[in-house]
UniProtKB/TrEMBL annotation:
The gene is leuA. Residues 4-266 form the Pyruvate carboxyltransferase domain. Residues 391-514 are annotated as: Regulatory domain. Coiled coil: none annotated. This is 2-isopropylmalate synthase. It comes from the Bacteria. It comes from Aeribacillus pallidus. Belongs to the alpha-IPM synthase/homocitrate synthase family. LeuA type 1 subfamily.
Amino acid sequence: MRKINFFDTTLRDGEQSAGVNLNLKEKLEIAKQLERVGMDIIEAGFPASSPGDFRSVQEIARTIKNSSVTGLARSVKGDIDAAWEALKDGAEPRLHTFIATSPVHREYKLKMTKEQVIERAVESVKYAAKFFPIIQWSAEDACRTELDFLAEIVEKVIEAGAKVINIPDTVGYITPIEYGKIFEYLKQNVKNIDQVILSAHCHDDLGMAVANALSAVEHGAGQIEGTINGIGERAGNSALEEVAVALYIRKDYYKVETNIRLNEIKRTSDLVSKLTGMIVPPNKAIVGKNAFAHESGIHQDGVLKEKTTYEIISPELVGVQSNSLVLGKHSGRHAFRVKLKELGFTMDEEATNRLFTAFKELSEKKKELTEDDLVALVLEEQLTGEEGTYELAALQVTYGTTGVPSATVTLKTKENEEIQEAATGNGSVEAIYNTLERCLKQSVTLLDYRIQSNSGGRDALAQVYVKVNVDGIEMGGRGIAQDVLEASAKAYLNAVNRAILLKHTAKEKHQATV
Ligand SMILES: CC(=O)SCCNC(=O)CCNC(=O)[C@H](O)C(C)(C)COP(=O)(O)OP(=O)(O)OC[C@H]1O[C@@H](n2cnc3c(N)ncnc32)[C@H](O)[C@@H]1OP(=O)(O)O
Ligand SMILES: CC(C)C(=O)C(=O)O
Ligand SMILES: [Mg+2]
């Protein structure tokens, strides 16, 4: 099978992402991981651009042994000299030199004619060939360059000694079919083209960087350039983890192989994200948080029965521990049951169904339910499963920074009777508890009140624990709800119900013994 080289430019083009600035230690750490993941070539920086970049490239070249380390240089002797100084101690020193070839870049940026651009490119490749065993030459903005001129300059730099010819889509302008045609054109119109490896370097301005890179593979490219997580100048570069996994999963189609250790991908992505501060979007292919998460009931059911119904990539392949069934408002009973079992709860069909209804209600209010939320729901179900005398039917609280907090509560008894009362308090919780006391027509002393958030985030569930004394019986109670006031009311009622239950049980026992 044809081998495709992976050229990683996370440390050069990736660092050109607005807001990214890596220090030497960070670059070295990333370089080591790029070596571990199996990058054939690591572009460590642009040595002439700053003393810091020079030092990083030098240190990386001296450290990395299993990947070829390269550095960027303009067609300027000083840049090439700096690159050689930085790279010469590396295992396989390689220069990456470039010059723009498109009309707009020639006229406005370089202020050079076609002939001058050719002359400068050839001169710099010949100069670099005195030092470097391998020279990669790039035609910046190749995809907006006249094809005949592109072919002409490519032929001349190959004659001058370039071993890799890179055809960058510098501004992310090309489409996959057009990009493929450029490679075909060069193969047919550059007489010494078979002496070199053709390379693709794509940007994502129109969201086609990965598709363009894959098209280049189909049309003869032997090297793909890109970055981890697709970071880079403007909208970024081809995401190499996506290219690598696409080539693997669709090897039936591309029929190529790479050196990439796919199971190191997630770790590499996490490291780059952490050190660059560039957050990976949850829906990002391969490495996004949701890439292996199934939320909807039909998908979850399918995956539980046979993973490949909805998974074309196994998470383990790319170093993700496992897929996940996210419980949310689109989930169904199959996934719900599995999750309960995973959490160690066994319950009958009736209880499961009751819990599922409560879960669905809650998921309308809260986007994603965590395991903690589920445990809380189960505990509440188990507690409220005990025969309760009173049930909270409705709660209304009025609170403002001025005025007295008040609460109106409707309770339902076991006999379906409704009791409604209102009262005030110094705070909302006190107003609720005063109202409940009125409803219950018995004295209840609050001994303890504790509140905690069930998980992180603004929509976390509130859990309230209370301890009350009802007619000499001390009892704890727990309430869980989206709202702290509702959780407070439920906890109080839960404790009272349990105290009443205990009182009745004790009385029955007493009567039985008399
Ligand atoms: C497509 C890409 O990603 S290319 C890589 C882009 N990366 C970077 O630019 C990051 C590092 N760059 C830098 O630190 C600086 O730009 C430096 C050190 C390279 C140069 O800085 P300065 O000398 O101040 O020049 P400045 O950046 O303002 O302008 C670039 C100069 O290089 C020239 N130039 C650009 N590309 C090339 C090239 N491939 N070969 C020769 N000259 C070039 C420009 O025409 C301009 O020349 P001018 O000063 O005669 O007009
Ligand atoms: C230096 C070159 C290869 C580049 O980054 C580009 O053209 O996008
Ligand atoms: Mg680029």
